[in-house]
Every structure is written in C-alpha cells, then in structure tokens.
Amino acid sequence: MDGLVLDLLIRGAILGLLGLYVLILAWAGKGFDAARRGALLAFGIACYTLNASQSLQPILPDVWRFGILIPFSVINPVFLWWFTGALFKDRFPVLGWRLIPAAVLLGNYVLWELIVGVESFAQLLVHTAGSIAVFALVIWLPLQDRASDLIERRRAIRAAFAIAAGVLGVIIISFEFVNARTGLPTLALTGTTLLFGAAFLGLRRDLLAPRAMLPEKEARRRMGPEDSHFLDKLKALMDQGIYREEGLSVAKLAERVGVPEHRLRKIINQGLGYRNFSAFLNERRVGEAKIWLEDPEHGLTPVSGLAYDLGYASLGPFNRAFKEVTGQTPTEYRRAVLADSGKD
Predict the structure, then answer these.
(1) Angle, alpha carbons 186-204-102 (nearest 5°)
(2) What DSSP state is assigned to residue 212?
C-alpha cells in the first residue's frame, strides 16, 4: 500500500478515536471539570493530527489552518496542564496567571506567523521554552499533593501520570525543535492517541467529574459498621482538637484512630466527603480561626500567634488556606468583620 494512503488511513482512524473521546468526555463532564478539559485536550490533539499531516496541509483551507488548527495545536501543553489540574486538585480554576502560558504561546504564534509572516528561530525557541515550562508544571502538579490525596485510586496514578506526561512532552517538543516544525510521525501520533484513551477513559467517572457528597446516613450505610465505628472515633478526636497539632499527617492520624493509613483515607473520603486531607484539616482550622477573628477582644492580637495555635508551621500556609476558604486573608477578614460590627 502506498505510504501516503496508509498515512491518511491511520490519521483518519486517529481522528475518529479523538472525536469519540471528545463526545464521551464532554458528555460525562459538568462545568469545566476534568472530563470537559479532557474533551478540550482531545480536540487539541485532533487539530495537531490534521496540522501535522504533510499530505493534508496543502489542501486545508488557510482559515482552518491558521485560525483553528495551529492555534489549538500550539497551546495543547496548556490544555494538558488544565486537565491535570482539574484531575488532581480539588479547585483549579482557569483564571488569572493560569491563562498566561496560553497567552504567551498563542501570542508568539500570532506575532511571527500572522503579523511578521515568517517562521524564525526565535519563534521556535519561545515555543519550545514555553512548552517545556508548561510540561514541567504538568509533572510537578500530580506529585505536589500526593501525600494529602484521600482518593486511593487517584493517588496511585499520580507518579505514573507525571512520568508519562513528562516523557511524552519532552519527546514532542524535542522532535519539533530538532526538525524546526510541528509534526510527529504517524506512529507516535497513534501511540499518543491510544495512550490518551487508555489513561483518561480508563479513569472512574468520579475522578473526571466528582459526584455530589452523600448524606452521612447513606455514607455510613455503605461503609459498614466497623468503618462507621472508626468514623465516630475520628470525629471525636477532631472535636477534641487534634487538628491543631502541627505536622499532623494522614499516617499520624491513622495511628491515633487505630486503622491503617489507606483505610483512614477511605473513611474520610467516603464518610465525610473530602477528597484532600489538607482541605479536611483546613475546614476545622479556618472555622475556629473565623470565630477567633470575629471577637473584638482579639482586634489587636497578631494573627501569627493564631496560625501557630492552629497547627500551621508559619503564617504563609495559614493565609493561603484561609483565603482559599473565605476569599480573604485573616487580617482582611478581621478588619471587615470588626468594621461591620462597629457600624452596628
């Protein structure tokens, strides 16, 4: 069979698979969660597949190539990063500085391809450096919160995901830099597409699109009497203030509860609905902090002392945790609450 015909057939199959991925993931998603971002990534890979074909490039309309295919291909690393964030973080909004990498990669393309009108080494260098930086974020993000992850299945794939994404990203960017153009060999594109399907569609739906938290009565029924007993013991320890202990980890808490670490992760996740151990601790700590900050008697007391009392090693982590829950720093929150009480 002629090589050109074989290439077109394989690319057609790749596009068919990617189209199926887009439909499945978009249908499974809700809002802009991991499933919807996975659909966006699949669409970006499809654009890359079309744009990388030397046989199809000459016959594709310029408005398609320069207006859709190339832009989506250029920012594919960012799509992967956004997907990774939604998959492994409880909150990863695509706002603020998380739009900057996409703006840099897309702006670099617009400047050289559409305004200057020529390809240059500077364009390739910026694209390569920017893409590598984004792939570094893709590798770092799954490894960052591995110890705090309460979903055992998701926790188990973090390291493998980081390694696979990193190797694949380096291969793609290295090939483009050496060849000074976009376009992976057909075999590499096929492998990438199959890996995409195996990795992303093989994930449980509750990882791609988190389910609503069950009422505690229903959660306890599904857990069984023994785990329900340990859940009661955990809640009692939390009410006694164990969350204030500095350096409290899942392992240390499991030892106090009297269960293996993996089992405690399951109990907190399924019984209380938390997906991350830090979020589990921070809700208690921030709740207590709000009560303290709302007391006028503490109006002149430094916030740093409160941070240490609640188990934080320094003021920075306390400020970040408090702002993630309330949208304000502790100082801003106290100032606003005391100002409102003064008006009354």
Answers:
(1) 55
(2) P
